[in-house]
Amino acid sequence: MTTMLSSDLPLTKIGRGKVRDIYAVDDDRLLLVTTDRISAFDVVMGETIPMKGAVLTQISAWWFNQLGGVVPHHMISADIAEIVEAIPALKEHRTALAGRTMLCRRTTVFPIECVIRGYITGSAWKEYAASGTLAGEKLPEDLQESGRLVPPIFSPATKAETGHDENITIARMRAIVGDETAYTLESMTRAVYTQGEEIAREQGIIIADTKFEFGRDAQGRIILIDEVMTPDSSRFWAADAYQPGRPQPSFDKQPLRDHLDAERRAGRWNGEAPPPKLPDDVVAATSARYLDAYRRLTGTDLVVK
């Protein structure tokens, strides 16, 4: 499978994120193409990570199939044969799109990242360690790094096209989307995370935190969209190596983060674009992490046809 830095399809491109290219199929459907681009510290790297796009797409598809009875979602198909049959114009692009493409229902997207934290780590831990708060709201005084949060904390954020998302209070979220919608988004977030965390734990993976996106479809329903509990949108930890009181190794882009941290400490990178060139061994190690996450979560190797 060849890697993909960007896509160019005979459809109208209506969006380009850090990783995904979004195309309009018609008034009711979108095509999401997950490239092999990778970002860290909110900077997109110049190199691609082999199989990354397929891993993200197929993990999301696996979750959508698991969660169909929990919440409605936007996936129509992630099978390239079904997608090409539905959109014949993509026939010549089948090989490039295999594994990395999802046909979805169109929605009006809520401008909120629905973050839920089952464990306190990352930026949440940094704020808590400094002030005892998360998004300015007080938390219990006896938490330790990577400690489990019971119940999980719903911690919304505003979506940023560039730069960092901003953690916000639930009161601010209500002001943005309205009380009823805010309640529904939090309830759906908790339902998906509860089910997903239980399933992942059975596979030896702790989902420490994750973020979801939701949209309203043409029928007025609020549905789950975008990617779901992937190594890009979540923090995956090995359950058998979990030890609170310290940072935990993760299954995602940790080799990449470690390399970039070393570059910053050495004064060779200031943390802004353009990023430093990635060595081949870092690219290979990062690709292996993504494939390992898919294997551990689903119980099978990723095969792209």
Automatic annotation (TrEMBL):
Cellular component, GO annotation: cytoplasm
Pathway annotation from the record: Purine metabolism; IMP biosynthesis via de novo pathway; 5-amino-1-(5-phospho-D-ribosyl)imidazole-4-carboxamide from 5-amino-1-(5-phospho-D-ribosyl)imidazole-4-carboxylate: step 1/2
Residues spanning the signal sequence: none
SUPFAM superfamilies: SAICAR synthase-like
A Pfam entry, by short name: SAICAR_synt
Keyword Membrane belongs to the record: no
All copies of domain SAICAR synthetase/ADE2 N-terminal, residue ranges: 14-264
Keywords for this protein: ATP-binding, Ligase, Nucleotide-binding, Purine biosynthesis
Catalysed reactions, as listed in the record: 5-amino-1-(5-phospho-D-ribosyl)imidazole-4-carboxylate + L-aspartate + ATP = (2S)-2-[5-amino-1-(5-phospho-beta-D-ribosyl)imidazole-4-carboxamido]succinate + ADP + phosphate + 2 H(+)
A GO BP entry: 'de novo' IMP biosynthetic process
Family in the record: Belongs to the SAICAR synthetase family.
HAMAP family (UniProt xref): SAICAR_synth
Protein name: Phosphoribosylaminoimidazole-succinocarboxamide synthase
Protein's gene: purC
